[in-house]
Amino acid sequence: MFARFHKHWSEINAAYEQYARKLGISYSALQVLCEIYNADSPVTQRMICETTHLPKTTVNAIIAGFVRQGYVALQEMKADRRQKCIGLTEDGRIYARPIMEHMSRSEMQAFEMLDETTTQVMVSGIGEYQKNFHQKLNHTNGGN
User: Fold this and answer.
1) What is the CATH number of domain 2-113?
2) List of long-range contacts for 114-118, beta carbons under 8 Å, 24+ apart
3) What is the mean pLDDT of the segment spanning 117-137?
4) Which burial class, exposed, middle or buried, applies to 87 when counting CB atoms under 10 A from its CB (0-12, 13-18, 19+)?
5) pTM value?
6) Nearest 5°: phi and psi at 55?
7) pLDDT tens digits, 48-63
8) Residue ranges per domain, the chain?
9) 21: part of which helix (H) or strand (E)?
10) Which residues contact 42 (CB under 8 A, 6 or more apart)?
């Protein structure tokens, strides 16, 4: 059963990767773009690293590419000048909006195709799995 779960999880990630490739960007760049687009306020590189679990060097390279393309702008933070706020430019919004809307619409349509019982079981099950997995991987000795 776990092998089937893992296969489905991998195929979901592969769908995002395939979508990113169709856009001409990496899956990592798609993740970073999602974080910037969906943020209520400008984010920092550290915040993006924490939520995407991508290495700082990867996020830095992606942000630099988006800056070169004119999709994001960096602004020094008043509290810590070493930190930069990252926000979409108008061109960045124009670029990201159809990508994010299509992805979000596809996710919601796929979710809505499930019946209510399946949805409830899936959501509660994945939450419980995540909690148990985190506990076993990070809090028990020797993986027992």
Assistant:
1) 1.10.10.10
2) none
3) 91
4) middle
5) 0.85
6) -65, 150
7) 999 999 999 999 999 9
8) 2-113, 115-144
9) helix 2-23
10) 75, 85, 86, 87
